[in-house]
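Archive entry: two folds, one per protein. Generate the first.
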Amino acid sequence: MRRPSGAGCIVGGEQSMYDVVIVGGGPGGSTAAALLRKYAPSLRVLVLEKERFPRDHIGESQLPSISPILDEMGVWDKVEAAGFPIKLGASYTWGKDADQWDFDFYPVEKWRDEPRPARFEGQRKFTAFQVDRAIYDEILIDHAAELGAEVREGTLVRDVEVDGDRVVAATLDSGERISARWFIDASGNVGLIRRALNISVDVTEELKNIAIWDYWQNAEWADKIGVGGTRVQVRSLPYGWMWFIPLGPTRTSLGLICPAEHFKKLGKTPEELYLQAISEQEQIASLTAKATREMKLEATKDWSQLAERIVGENWFLVGEAAGFADPILAAGMSLTHSSARDAAYTIMEIDRGELDGKWLRSRYNERHRTNIEQHIRFGQYWYSANGCFTDLQDHCRRIAGEAGLKLDPKKAWAWLAQGGFISESLGLPTFGSFDIASAKQVLERFDAGGPSRQVGTMVSGYNVFQLNLRGAVKGRVGHLVDGRIRPIECWTRGEATLPLVGIYGAVVDILQRTSDAKEIFGMFTSLVGASGTPDGAMGTRVSAFISALDVMIEQFWVTRSLDKKKPAVRIDLGDTRHMRTREQGAAAGVSAGAPTAETPGSGS
């Protein structure tokens, strides 16, 4: 139910009280509202949005972890019907040299064209969207309204009233005062509720950047993969980097990220620097040569930051209100959808009263603060290790120095891995939205030191792997499914946690049956084969099991040894088909703009 600005809800001459008030109607607010109404339809949910849809917004390049949330909301089919480009990965010039390299969620030579709109199944579970936020955000908020949330657009929250750690009410610009049992701050980096509660924010000083962007009509696509498939383009310059994101058949988002301090030194206007960047980046200049700018240039600060805490007595911070990680990892929307989903789940679970509220709040705070912090940490590494930033070498060295980061890949991995490996999907080993193997490959790609400095795997060189639970105690973690937070058993030892669910749970089960590497890896392959995984994703799924074993060795959940009577395990991270140079792609039969709709890739 979408209402105009100022439409109140009055009962018997007195303003009624809502169950949940959400400040902000972007993807965070609409995700929380939709899931609250889906699983608890009796809840009175109000969304307050200061702007009117449709409106443009950056944050258009998604990650595959968003799609299952859209499917759970019941809105994936609507988003797919909008015809947004299918994102199969990203193309970079970044690292030790200016060579172009690709990172794909799904191997393009295995991609099969299929009619659109398609269903959320098979290969589409391993892809993402590149969305025009003017369209995407409206689809999501309309869907929340269809599920019964009250949505007020053009409604400005003037003041937030608090009492200690409790939010009491929100006063609108019209003077109307609205109270609720629960409040969700989805207001972006403005953080209206966060500011009212005086929650401090830790800003990563060395990642204070600015973003300058505009939209273009009829730019060429750099990569055309089947029908509607493409990669986001990330191109380094001496003083920053550019994004090139097709949003539809004719519209493209094109932006520049530059350190704020360096921007000031240049003495240029945003318009001047934007046009200079386009002219100096040869590929971008070529792609836009026959295109037309919409002349909607905008600029904003682009600071990585993290709130001191993101949950309280009756409030939650979601999305950028909780924290922001540099867009180089394209994780902003993923973090937003994930935290909004979790906030909705936690509110419903506390309302049921079956689980300890303190534990529920603590797990929300720890999980999402760690997730944001991990992305910020990985962003620091990306910037410090980019040899293409020839005008920013002092800046890059300062990032490494302030972070206490050693650029040797092995030492960098130890630094990055602090805090463990948090995943959007509990039980799946990831780091900074990358699977573990790909994250390690990034470190090796950015380094020019040769094989002796490579991170490698903890599995290689051994063939006996035994579960090690010495000193561990049973604990519990929360598993979000079907509107419930299910307490799942885990093992804890110090700050390390081993969840007995998902891939970790499967690895534990296998290790309880055998310690022989050949049998272990055979079981990995059998499990993946029995899961209905499409052929193109088999390698990724098996790699996830190996990564889980790798992480368990790093955290001493597994001991390793070598039986000299049997061959040792040998794993080369470079074997993955998901991260490779254009030359490697060409050798596999994949060209920069292929496979096309006429010649879908088959790997042959």
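Generate the second and append.
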Amino acid sequence: MSAAAAPPIQVALVEDDPDLRDATFQTLTLEGADVVAFADARAALDWLDADFPGVVVSDVRMPGIDGIAFFAALREVDSDLPVILTTGHGDIAMAVAAMKNGAADFLTKPYASADLIRAVRAASERRALALENRRLRQEAGRNVGLSIPGSSAAAQRLRSVIEGVARSEIDVVLTGQAGTGKSYGARLIHDLSARRSRPFVTVDAGVLAHEDAELLLFGRDPGAGQLSRTGLIERANGGTLFLDDIAAASGVLTTRLVSLVEKREVWPLGAATARRLNIRIIIARLAEQPQDSLRDPAWHRLGAVQIAFPLLADRREDVPEIFRLFVARHARDAGVPAPTIGEAHWRHVQSHDWPGNLHELSGYARAVVLGLAEIESPASPLTGQRPLHAIVADFERTVLEDALRQCRGDIAQLQAMLQTPRKTIYDKLAKYDLKPARFR
């Protein structure tokens, strides 16, 4: 697999003066930077998240949210996100105070292009180092024994195959019914591979079926009044791209994905040339519709290496162990002690067929932790010891935490998974004091 060139410096530019915004955009673009420009801070806040790998350049004097308030809001998103403030002479004291609070730099208008480029390059280097240290801390804190749980023959086979595939660089197709653990398996392959410190980007059915799927996936180069946008595929450069439920893609989109699989190139909308990528591709497909494989060219391109995920009903001896893990995790996320599992719950765990597989078992474990599993004794919290709004709030918070964990704190993926407007997502995160960075 050929090595890819270093990705361009990414800059989020916030400037309300259209002439200065266009001039700054051109200056940075000519230096090879990937720039996304905004006319106000609110639009930038809606777009930025803690995964942004670049630098923010923002004016101080702006209508609505000014640069200082914008900087304070970004500190809540990610305290390591570098912000360069551009100021008039009368704002220098404010900018100096912001630097004491963590701003990366400030430039006094009118500033030389060389000074802007120098500040952006320095801040970009610090950002890359901060993200690398974050990945290393996450890796160090991750359970080194992380693997497929269970002692059944099916679990042992699956564990062995995943560990073997992870040591290679080959692309993989994961098959199985809904809820059998394909997403977890994809993440596990990445975490056990040499790419573990690089990006893991999930593209799910919500993105593949979206009306702007090509823009979201392939991005867009600037031109004809359009701002540039880095696509999800290019964000995976150097790491792993996970296409979850590729059957949701349209025929045109599938053709472009086939080209990606074969050539390892991405061609953003409006781009004059393709850009080479260094990525590993993992595809997940539902097993219950084998006839779809005849219409899926990407399936055939990667079909040489397939991993089948068994039904939970086919590994019954593993269910109690997996249930205990789910209960412990949901209790930790809810900030409550793990409950004592009653006899009625254990009977249900061991006798139920779990047609929803791991998803259903996880949901049941969450209900047990929250006291919502009604087969328990009359001492259940549903007997009136807690008001309904508190139970609903606990459940909503747990759903958000579970989704944040699955998305690794990625707001765009969280929005697609929950099919909820971005503003509502941020309102809910603020309501429950959930920081996406904690889940990365």
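Annotation attached to the second fold: The domain at 10-140 is CATH 3.40.50.2300 (Rossmann fold). Residues 1-5, 140-145, 290-295, 376-384 have pLDDT under 50 and may be disordered.
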